[in-house]
Specification:
six-stranded antiparallel sheet; two-stranded antiparallel sheet; mainly beta
């Protein structure tokens, strides 16, 4: 089990998105890769849309599960994706200059 814990925050002050973005989603992916066989196992978790406003967002905990005692390297990746909510419909913004992804942990065997 891997988890990412983010304390409460005000999105308007800490998250800077592209023009037109009204919300964002935080994503976490854990992957164990067997490089020799060219196979992998993954587990994902993500938040609901979080508004880019002055409201304080409560703490966030995202958990992902991979098989215990894996013999393969494991990677934990965290990302942010910006969206626009209009008339109750969510649209993913495709501005890759703002969407980000980073490897936050590598566990080698």
């Amino acid at each position: 089990l891997a988890q990412v814990v983010i304390p409460s925050f005000m999105a308007e002050k800490l998250v800077f998105g592209p023009q037109g973005a009204t919300h964002f989603v935080i994503q976490v992916v854990a992957t164990a890769i067997d490089f020799a066989a060219g196979t992998y196992e993954s587990s994902t978790a993500e938040t609901e849309n979080i508004a880019l406003d002055a409201e304080v967002t409560g703490g966030i905990t995202l958990q992902v599960q991979l098989p215990a005692n894996s013999e393969h390297p494991q990677f934990l990746v965290m990302g942010i994706q910006f969206t626009q909510v209009m008339h109750g419909v969510t649209y993913t913004l495709s501005n890759d200059a703002y969407n980000a992804l980073a490897v936050v942990l590598v566990n080698t065997v």
